[in-house]
Amino acid sequence: MSSEHIETVIIGAGQAGLSTAYHLQQLGRSCVVLAAESRVGDGWREQWDSLTLFTPAWADGLDGMPFPAPRWHTPGKDEFADYLQAYATRFRLPVQTSTRAERLTRSHDDAYLVTTPDGTIKADNVVVATGTFGRTPFVPDFADQLDPGIRQLHSSEYRRPEQLASGAVLVVGASHSGCDIAYEAAATHETVLVGRDNGQIPIPFTSPLVKVVLPVMLFAFGHVLTRRTPVGRKEMHHFRHGGGPRLRVQTADLERRHVDWVRGRMTGVQDGRPVLDNGRSVDASTVVWCTGFRQAFEWIDLPVFADDGWPRELRGVVDEAPGLYFAGLCFQSAAVSMTIHGAGHDAEYVARHIAARSRDRANQAVAV
Q: Of 305, 279, 280, which Cα lies nearest the Cα of 294?
């Protein structure tokens, strides 16, 4: 692939990228999906062993292929990875694995140029479906000041409790991954969790009432907390910069395992030990950084990003760069965007926008 022209290049083969390809295929438009991983679904397989989805099987399928499990089964990360691989195979989606997009820019004739190790692809449209932040782990600058004897892991490196050193564990960050990992670690280790409280859903996932509450919550996430409503726009900032409410692991779960939750921040290091904003020094043998990922769009050489690093888009469409799209962003259209079903819905919107743009361009060419 030294140089070729493709109507649409989709960068990323997760649920958002594959769903975009599916809908483009259904609309009769050509595309290619570039996947950095060697297998479709590896982005999920590389998560920690006990990770399960937050939503049941009925909400975990993409258009054209329901998730193959009982309605209220909660899939594990490997189950979902295998589903994505099966989805790509069933619909013969044009995925090129082991192909990382290294640079995205624009040519003098307003086409997009996607640089890969194998060459350059010229495209009329590009969909960046690498996720909300890409995969560049964020840890504070003072992490390297910790005592070398303290084991440090980012959540992207954590797989199972056996990785933790003997002794106390400090989990930094109390969003979904932080609460999940702190809960798991506390079964075998004294565990301190530090991070702000983002709230939680009103009932535990183990309650029979979840079959009533969860559908209502997902409806609200898709129809009330949207970018079209004042309350939705307010929540968008919280979701993007602070995380959403706790779902699976709740406060009571952490209390039952005696997790010491400090609702604050880690602010630095003193004498090689972590220091919290209340002045407390934590004598930890392991620190797990559940501090998320930084915006990792430096490879996109286009002036389409706001000061906070987020692309200037609406529902994935970048008006100031016609033909450039994003898929799989947190709150792309609404709070439900963070779910599998929501990401698929957003991808369909992007695909329809691409198809309409392609038809308009073809009509203009005929008219000329």
A: 305
**Which tens digits make up the pLDDT trace of 95-144?**
999 999 999 999 988 899 999 999 999 999 999 999 765 567 889 999 99
What pLDDT, in 10s, does the model give residues 232-288?
Answer: 999 998 888 777 778 889 999 999 999 999 999 999 999 999 999 999 999 999 999
193 plus 176 within the same structural domain: yes
With H, G, I as helix, E, B as strand and everything else as coil, classify residue 52: strand
CATH of the domain at 173: 3.50.50.60
Q: How far is Cα 102 from Cα 91, in angstroms, rounded to an integer?
A: 27
With contact defined as beta carbons under 8 Å apart, do 126 and 8 qualify? yes
Q: Which domain holds residue 37?
A: 3-135+293-367
Of 58, 54, 51, 56, the closest CA to residue 76 belongs to 51
Only one residue has tokens 């020094």, namely 281
Cβ distance 168 to 192 under 8 Å? yes
